[in-house]
């Protein structure tokens, strides 16, 4: 499973209070399961709840939520794009220690696909494909950036 390590590294890089005190962030996987169907390959999906626990966190929770949401937008976008998922997607609890510190627990449901294939010699391969990225809805497929990205132009696609 790659997402917990990816998210931890992202938060360490983006949250100043964690850079100097990496032990304040603990990461756990709860309620994990493997989803595999009787398809032609044994490809599967990991599904689990990721628990992030920040201990004695001296910053405002906003400084964690913003980079967390930025990561989710790339790596588990349906938690933001799907209203049903967004209602329950990211959950948190906080214990206010004093006016300058909080213990913050954040949980989010994650999935990771694992694709089984074969190399040229017929040996099994295991890949973890990236999440599909949403296309920007406001871009018309007939629009392209101009030369060196300094302008724009419209073209008529071949019919």
UniProtKB/TrEMBL annotation:
It comes from the Bacteria. It holds the Pfam family P2_Phage_GpR. This is Phage tail protein. It comes from Pseudomonas spirodelae.
């Amino acid at each position: 499973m790659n997402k917990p390590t990816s998210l931890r590294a992202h938060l360490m890089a983006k949250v100043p209070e964690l850079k100097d005190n990496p032990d304040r962030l603990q990461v756990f996987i709860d309620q994990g399961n493997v989803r595999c169907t009787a398809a032609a390959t044994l490809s599967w999906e990991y599904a689990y709840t990721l628990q992030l626990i920040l201990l004695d966190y001296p910053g405002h929770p906003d400084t964690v939520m913003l980079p967390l949401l930025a990561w989710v937008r790339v790596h588990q976008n349906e938690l933001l794009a799907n209203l049903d998922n967004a209602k329950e997607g990211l959950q948190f609890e906080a214990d206010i220690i004093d006016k300058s510190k909080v213990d913050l627990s954040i949980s989010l449901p994650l999935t990771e696909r694992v694709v089984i294939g074969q190399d040229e010699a017929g040996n099994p391969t295991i890949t973890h494909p990236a999440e599909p990225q949403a296309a920007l809805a406001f871009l018309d497929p007939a629009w392209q950036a101009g030369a060196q990205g300094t302008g724009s132009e419209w073209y008529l696609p071949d019919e």
